[in-house]
Amino acid sequence: MPKSSRSKWAAGSERAIVAHPYRHGRDTGRTPQASLDEAVGLAVAIGLDVRAQTTVRLNRPRPATLFGLGWVERTAANVAADEIEVLVVDGALSPVQQRNLERALHCKVIDRTGLILEIFAARARTREGRLQVELAQLTYQRSRLVRSWTHLERQRGGLGTVGGPGETQIEADRRMIDERVVRLRRELDDVTRTRELQRKRRRDAPFPVVALVGYTNAGKSTLFNRLTGADILAQDQLFATLDPTMRGIVLPSGRKVILSDTVGFISDLPTDLVAAFRATLEEVLEADVLLHIRDASHPDCDAQKTDVEAVLRDLGAGHGEQGHLIEVFNKLDLLSNDDLMRIENQVIRSDAAVTVSALTGEGTSTLLEMIDGVLDRARQVVELEVDLGEGAALAWLYRRGEVLSRDDHGTVASVVVSLDPEDVGRIPAVVRQIDRATAAAE
Asked: What pTM was estimated for this model as a whole?
């Protein structure tokens, strides 16, 4: 059982083989080669030295080892010849399959879930992130105890006069994990309460939140840096960003918003990891606008979109049915002329899509105007009266909203103003509301 969430391979360069098993005729929306390339990227991201990579067609997966005996024997020879230390299987392995493969190959075997957990362990920087990763690791590891090595089959002696067999090592390990999980959940509850207080303060603040979501390595952090002038880590690497980052930016209308960069999604994201990071991922539920950043240059761009939408639905955020999501086709600087024309045709047919290059900045001004437009559609029009002597209140209305008309008569100003929904509830007390909020401004 690990004592911390730190990755075992964070500073190493163990030699590895990456294998992507696939079933012929099963459509996943991705080619086997594209899936293998992503798995190699995951292995490289954790610091493994990938010496060989292969796709493996499975006609009938074997319950004992997943792969056929012939493939296992050939791979065992390669492991011995090249001194391979790790086999990465880009798929789910049962505890029994993992144990049997390790025995047959004489090397460490890790499946997709275990690899992603290792990456998150290496990248988490905040206390909350580390707690979330460790909780996910322990939940995953508890299910692996049945695969165990010899020491897990031993028994500890009984205590004193207590009859019956002693506690087995596997039972002791499971108990220790359960106790640690309880402590972690208690600590995470405290962190979650703190995060909720932070959310409440942001809801009370007069600034809408715009969240960047998307598949890992789609360019979210590069775009975040481009829009905010920040310098958060932005690498051509899977899961370069884990911990959420927020910065304020000013839109073309003069409206200030908070931009939030979030962890990237990926296909087959481990269930335990989604559960552990739920408090962080739920930041997107609080957002007024979602920017779905898509890597337009990736051959599996559409499949990646499906994966992101699935996670958003799982979180309860939907995928834009409320009209608050903008599709951002990024990396247009990498597109051929034909691909660029195809993407632009998609954008033309949508009223909530835009092409950008986060690297060069092309298209970002249009994106900012589109965010303004989405927020404008959500605004409400209210008719108000305010004494002309209340200069601060009048200034607040001009600063926070768009004054559509004003009629001064005597000592009173009648004002029709378009405000963001959250600002309607913050209208200064000295202002008299004549009409209740009407439909959103056109």
From this structure: 0.76
